[in-house]
Structures are given as C-alpha cells and as structure tokens.
Amino acid sequence: MSMPIAPITPVRLPESIQAPPEASQNGGFQSVLDAAIQSVESSGSKASKAVESFLSGESEELHSTALAVQRAELQFDLFLQVRNKVVAAYQEIMRMPI
C-alpha cells in the first residue's frame, strides 16, 4: 500500500539567526557589518560607563560591572574572530585560479 507524498514546506531559520530585513536590499553585507560594529561599540561604551560609575561610587555593583566588562570583551572577541574568518575567506577566493 502506497502513501501519498506530502509537499515539502520551506525551512525557516530562528529569528536570532535570520538576517535583518534591510540586509536583503543592495548593500546588505555593509548594513549587517555596520550593525555589528555599532553593537560592539555600544557594548564597549556601556562597559566603560559601568566601570566609571563603579569607581565614582555610584549605584553600580561590582558583579554588574564585571558582567558588563566581560560581555563587551566577549562581543569584541567574537567580532574579531568573524573578521578573521571573512579575511581568510577573501584571501582564499583571491588565490583561486580564474
């Protein structure tokens, strides 16, 4: 006995992995890169403000300051690794014979 074949539905990526909507337009890579740079910069400035707030004796607690600094450091390290992979991929493409 044969069973009918069901249609295949398109696979949807989770929202956290999907590219932002403006990435589908021209210059999509540039907009994604700009957003990533802005995110790293804002995280670094938040960490700096948290450290300044802690050192001046304001309401910041030590653990929240340490978390902000660690978050900024990890985000920068991730961005640096992604940049290294993109540069390596570009260099590999440039080495390909035409």
Characterise the protein shown here.
The chain has a domain at 28-95. Helix content is 63%, strand content 0%. The protein has two helices and no strands. The longest helix has 34 residues, at 62-95. The relative contact order is 0.08.
Indicate the mean pLDDT: 83
Major β-sheet, in short? none
- Radius of gyration, in angstroms, nearest whole number: 21 Å
- Helix content range of the residues, please? 55-70%
Gap between N and C termini, in Å? 53 Å
Shape: flat
The tally of beta strands, per DSSP, is 0
Oligomer: single chain
Low-pLDDT ranges: none
| Computed structural class | mainly alpha
Q: Helices and strands, in N-to-C order?
A: HH
What is the percentage of strand-forming residues?
under 5%
